[in-house]
Amino acid sequence: MNSLKYIVFTVLIASASGVAAQQADDQAAADSAPPPSYPCEEDERFSAFDFWVGEWDVHDASGTYQGSNTISREQRGCVLVENWTGAGGSTGTSINYLDTKSDEWVQFWIAAGGYHIDIRGGMTDDGMLLTGIIHTYNNGITTPFRGLWTALPDGRVRQFFEISSDGGETWVTWFEGFYTRKAAD
User: Would residue 106 count as lying in a domain?
Assistant: First the structure.
């Protein structure tokens, strides 16, 4: 019986020594771990909308100047921030980000003119397609809305917005703009 106690005691001591050694190894690994990573910089999904990043002059299909827009990558690539100034003085700002839970891109736009746009979606063969709603503050109307951003072969970006007054059965053009990069100073 004493030899059985000795064997059990020896196994317990050896196990405890192994656990202590593993804990020491784990602590050493933690102490030498690299600095925190930035997943938005390292995951290519966060760069899907980067073709829109830049400083732009925006014209309609007839060539009439509509305004200027600046889209910048912020928070180490986790969000695109848009700042619009229209030719007539209108302004607006959007944040655009990848919702990793749904794997959808989201845009939330606020305009000084009293409306917001809340759309989501992702890349298609035609470009970045986001759908949702536009809500106007002064009359409280919420309407189906969608936007398509397409990188064109000549380096421009086409932004095409549509709105529906019948719950999404039919769509009409709300805005079409062609983005041309501003010349470097």
Answer: yes
